[in-house]
From TrEMBL:
The keyword Zinc does not apply. Residues 1-29 are annotated as: Disordered. The lineage of its organism: Bacteria, Bacillati, Actinomycetota, Actinomycetes, Kitasatosporales. Residues 30-90 form the HTH tetR-type domain. GO terms for molecular function: DNA-binding transcription factor activity; transcription cis-regulatory region binding. Residues 15-24 have a biased composition (Pro residues). Transmembrane segments: none annotated. Keywords: DNA-binding, Transcription, Transcription regulation. It holds the Pfam family TetR_N. This is Transcriptional regulator. Residues 53-72 bind DNA. InterPro entries: Homeodomain-like_sf (IPR009057), HTH-type_TetR-like_transc_reg (IPR050109), HTH_TetR (IPR001647), Repressor_TetR_C (IPR004111), Tet_transcr_reg_TetR-rel_C_sf (IPR036271).
Length: 250
């Protein structure tokens, strides 16, 4: 009796191919706080902080607002998340009483560089009560450095507020300048030589000092002005001092 094997082989050759597992729609990745933070930072890095909205984040994630609101309360939560993520990248040194000023400068410089990577993101840090553990970790680290240097607790607390506020303001100004550079009406600002020329061309009888010192007024490369202003705060912290006086109550 002839074998059925050839018939089965022919049937197999003419049968439709099995479904490609790769063609099956992949299971959607669940929404998590980390994914929300990643998407938010992507929006800021590519479009600027002004474009950061819940709707824009949901578009990046390919989901709807209800998926986000299962994890966050409002956009303030997103601000807290993204600043916390940036703070998680800050490397904090072991406080050294002999190098506390340099260590403070280094931490502030790291925070500056993180903010500059994401145009306008420092706005998220302003007027924020820090609750994210990574943000608090940086505050704890700065406080430890200043206290190790002998700075009074209240002075240290106020100094941290001043330092972080300046870092935020500096990086926000840089972001606004970059935004203006894209507009043709502001092209003249890009040239320092033209700006010096405009200042020197002012009426000398009304602006004698500006016309004389135009070069100094427009000087500074890279982060030189940032370092200078940071030094005005840090270098005037007096170890062992009594700290700022408490307000009087009338």
């Amino acid at each position: 009796m002839p074998s059925d094997q050839p018939r089965r082989g022919r049937a197999a050759r003419h049968a439709p191919p099995p479904a490609d597992p790769a063609a099956t729609p992949p299971r959607r990745e669940p929404i998590t706080l980390d994914r929300i933070t990643d998407a938010a930072l992507h929006v800021v890095a590519t479009e600027g902080y002004d474009s950061l909205t819940v709707r824009r984040i949901t578009h990046v994630l390919g989901t709807g607002p209800s998926s986000l609101y299962a994890h966050i309360v409002n956009k303030d939560d997103i601000d807290d998340l993204i600043i916390g993520r940036l703070c998680s990248r800050i490397v904090l040194p072991e406080p050294d009483p002999a190098a506390w000023r340099a260590q403070t400068r280094d931490v502030c410089g790291q925070l500056r560089d993180q903010f500059l990577m994401y145009p306008g993101i420092s706005r998220a840090a302003m007027a924020m009560v820090p609750t994210n553990l990574e943000t608090l970790r940086v505050n704890e680290g700065l406080l430890a450095i200043l206290l190790a240097g002998g700075v009074a607790p209240r002075t240290a607390a106020w100094a941290i507020d001043s330092l972080t506020l300046y870092v935020g303001a500096y990086t926000l100004e840089r972001a606004l300048l970059e935004q203006r550079r894209k507009h043709p009406d502001y092209a003249w600002v890009l040239s320092r030589d033209e700006l010096v020329g405009r200042l020197e061309a002012l009426p000398a009888d009304r602006f004698p000092r500006i016309t004389r010192h135009a070069a100094e007024l427009t000087s500074g490369e890279g982060n030189e002005r940032f370092d200078f202003a940071l030094g005005l705060i840090i270098d005037n912290l007096v170890p062992g001092g009594p700290g700022p006086a408490a307000p009087t109550v009338s």
